[in-house]
């Protein structure tokens, strides 16, 4: 077995058609153990269908899935996977604690009551454990869904739009939660339209468009070079040379931009600022700028559209 196939997720050549509608034309992807991978793409790109095929909830027309080094349909693999579906609904007559207990029982997993309570606390529902889910707001139900996905300490968590119902604080909580999972070595596959949040937590991105992988890579690979924006006064020839030594320089009046390599060394910017000050430059502002993931996503999707729709 290759290293790829023992990854958290290894999927090759996935296809799915609904009558005349091709939902997924050809998708291969890998999520390494402990990696956070984001699935991005416009509405209808096939993200949820890919996720459902990974989980065996939709039968692919073609393709192969391995989860945690086992065939995707192997119950031993599925037992180690946590899933938050895009459309979640829990039994309104049960309390939050009962919903968790039910899922643990259905999965046949021995999770003690104290651990289940810790899990509710992790998603901010500790004080609502005894309340009926029917009285929960949508955001609280989504938090409960996260608890259901996490309760059995999975090695892989698949979250389909985990913050769609959450307020800004809730979104920040989920961001922290994903980072906590990553620290614990849990692999996370995240489908979200909230690109700013994706950018903060993910290691790698796969962009789907019309059922195919339009681009994939680390943020560094996808976003390329970074840019340093400065507002400077009294820039003499020596200072200009110093800026040019850091990267390609352009300026308009007192506003300068220096194109830095994709992953600049940590000392690059402080050293530059120190040298500029020593050369008599007055430094008013220094801000790192970089093309955002959103800008990159839009440019990839627009280029794809220009290439024509061949379906
Ligand atoms: N059960 C189904 N029956 C028929 N068509 C379907 C079904 N599920 C998905 N599709 C179609 O497959 C395509 C991909 O849908 P999918 O839900 O995977 O997209 P998505 O990228 O998750 O979209 P969104 O961001 O809007 O959630 C769409 O054209 C959709 O209409």
TrEMBL record:
Where does the ABC transporter domain lie? 9-235
Q: Where is the signal peptide?
A: none
Superkingdom of the source species: Bacteria
| Any GO MF annotation of the entry | ATP binding
Q: Name one Pfam family in it.
A: ABC_tran
Q: Which InterPro entries match?
A: AAA+_ATPase, ABC_transporter-like_ATP-bd, ABC_transporter-like_CS, P-loop_NTPase
Q: Does the keyword ATP-binding apply?
A: yes
Read off the SMART domains from this record.
Answer: AAA
What's in the keyword line of the UniProt record? ATP-binding, Nucleotide-binding, Transport
The record ties this protein, via PANTHER family, to: ABC TRANSPORTER, ATP-BINDING PROTEIN
Which family does the entry's similarity section mention?
Belongs to the ABC transporter superfamily.
Q: Would you tell me the protein name for this molecule?
A: ABC-2 type transport system ATP-binding protein
Q: Which organism is it from?
A: Actinoplanes octamycinicus
